[in-house]
Amino acid sequence: MCGRYITPQDSELETVFEIVGPRDAAWAQQVFNVAPSMTVPVIRWREGRRELVGMRWGLIPAFARGVAGQFNTINARIETVRTSSAYRDAWRRGQRCLIPANGFYEWQARADNKQPWFIGCADQPVFAFAGVWDSSVPASGEPVLSCTIITLPASPMMADIHNVRQREPAILRREHWQCWLSGTVDEAYACLRQYPDELRSAWPVSRRVNSPRNNDAALAARVQTAPALF
User: Is the CB of residue 76 less than 8 Å from the CB of residue 87?
Assistant: First the structure.
């Protein structure tokens, strides 16, 4: 799964994702500890171009009329993203998106406590999670845009880190970005695969990341930990 991550700077979003034309927000302020329900930068395909918009992290289906449900929708499982009532209509409509990141955090269960880890991509410092988005209109009439990150069964390396649930977010290879945004549903689904472990970087980080109130670059710094006592 993915429950916290780091957003890129505005300049990185523009250049790496080739954003041209208007956007609805500026993201100059990098966030080092994004938490569920925050508004995050998302890239979708609209009118033949990549559009950068802000969306709530935690998908609210169109039928929910803008009201977040009781279930956690920050992640959608690859096994059910096409069939779950929360995501299937958005999937069928082709409402897929890129969710940019510089890295994410996962927690490793240990005998003494849970140890947070930072995970990045060694071959692309700015990468994209595979996401699905939806628009839900509340009684007030102002649409709520929201998104979810698709997750997969964990790779061997990620299973060792995320050793309880053994899931990982779907990170797209750069050559698959456009197919994910504008391809057919079958072409897009074929892009969902584990990111190669040899192209990842990972290290333990401070437990300060446990609190979303902490938001600074030092959260992603490597720390020394004792061996796990299992």
Answer: yes
**What domains can you pick out in the chain, each with its CATH number?**
4-220 (3.90.1680.10)
Distance between CA atoms of 83 and 78, rounded to whole angstroms? 10
**pTM passes above 0.90:** yes
* Distance separating alpha carbons of residues 40 and 131, to the nearest angstrom: 12
Strands, DSSP E only, in 157-224?
Answer: 167-169, 200-204
Tell me how far apart the alpha carbons of residues 46 and 53 are, in angstroms, rounded to a whole number.
11
- 29 contacts: CB under 8 Å, gap ≥ 6: none
- Per the CB < 8 A criterion, the answer to whether 150 and 192 are in contact is yes
**Looking at the annotation, which residues are catalytic?**
2, 106
Q: Which of 207, 12, 1, 6 is nearest to 120 (CA)?
A: 6
Record the tokens describing residue 204, joined without a space.
């333990």
Strands 127-136 and 144-153, by their bridges, are antiparallel
The rounded radius of gyration (Å) of the Cα atoms in the chain is: 17
| pLDDT tens readout for residues 66-76 | 999 888 899 99
- Quote the tokens at residue 116: 């947070």
Q: What values do phi and psi take at 206, rounded to 5?
A: -65, 150
Q: Residue 182: enclosing H or E segment and its boundaries? A: helix 177-182
pLDDT of residue 71: 85
